[in-house]
Design brief:
Strand content: 5-15%
Number of domains: 1
Strand order of the largest sheet: 2-3-1-4-5
CATH architecture: 3-Layer(aba) Sandwich
Radius of gyration: 17 Å
Shape: globular
Oligomer: single chain
Length: 190
C-alpha cells in the first residue's frame, strides 16, 4: 500500500509517518527531496532571489530563503516553479520503483500533484493554538515567523478534495496511542 501523509505546519505529519514506518512502511520525505533539489538548483535560486540567500560557504541558507518566500506569495510561486517539477520527477520515480508499503510524507502533497501517486491520503489535523505551541516548542521560532509560515500553507489541502483520492482525516489532539490506533486502522484497511 502507498499512503500520502499531509497536513498543516505542526499538525503531526512526522508522527503519523513514524507510526507507518513502525508498521514496515518505507518513507519518501518530500522535504528532504526538496533540500536535495535546492542544492542542485542553487545557482538558479540565487539568480532568482539574490546572493543574500546564500551562506558564507555558497550554499542556500534555507532560513534566509524561507524568510523571503513565506512572506511573499509571488516569491514562493517563483521558488516552487524552480523546484517542484524536479521534486515531483524524483518522487514519482521512487514511487514507481518501490515494491511494498510506502509512505510519502509531504505538506505539499496536493499542490505538487503527488496524491495521484498513492492509494490513500491521510490528512493530519490539529487546532491552530495547539499547532502554534508545538511549533514554538519544536522549532523555537518567533510568533511572527510561525504565523507567516502558517498563512503560506493556507491552501495546501484543497476544498473540496480532488476526486478519485481516498482521503482519511485524522485529528492529532490527544495522545500518541489514540493517533496510532487511528492510523493503524487506516493502514490495515479497516
Amino acid at each position: 500500500m502507498k499512503i500520502g501523509v499531509t497536513g498543516l505546519y505542526a499538525a503531526g505529519k512526522d508522527e503519523v509517518t513514524k507510526i507507518l514506518i513502525e508498521r514496515g512502511f518505507r518513507e519518501i520525505n518530500v522535504d528532504k527531496v526538496g533540500h536535495l533539489v535546492l542544492g542542485e538548483k542553487k545557482a538558479e535560486v540565487a539568480a532568482a532571489f539574490g546572493d543574500g540567500i546564500l551562506d558564507p560557504g555558497g550554499d542556500v541558507d534555507r532560513r534566509a530563503l524561507g524568510a523571503v518566500v513565506f512572506r511573499d506569495d509571488g516569491a514562493r510561486a517563483r521558488l516552487e516553479a524552480l523546484l517542484h517539477p524536479r521534486m515531483k520527477e524524483l518522487v514519482a520515480g521512487e514511487v514507481r520503483r518501490t515494491r511494498g508499503d510506502l509512505v510519502v510524507n509531504a505538506a505539499i502533497l496536493f499542490p505538487m500533484g503527488l496524491a495521484e501517486l498513492v492509494d490513500a491520503v491521510i490528512v493530519v489535523r490539529a487546532p491552530l493554538l495547539l499547532r502554534i505551541c508545538r511549533a514554538r516548542r519544536r522549532d523555537g521560532a518567533g510568533l511572527g515567523h510561525l504565523l507567516a509560515r502558517m498563512r503560506a500553507q493556507k491552501e495546501i489541502i484543497p476544498q473540496p478534495p480532488p476526486p478519485n483520492v481516498d482521503i482519511y482525516y485524522v485529528w492529532n489532539t490527544r495522545n500518541r496511542k489514540c493517533l496510532k490506533d487511528r492510523v493503524e486502522k487506516i493502514a490495515s484497511g479497516r
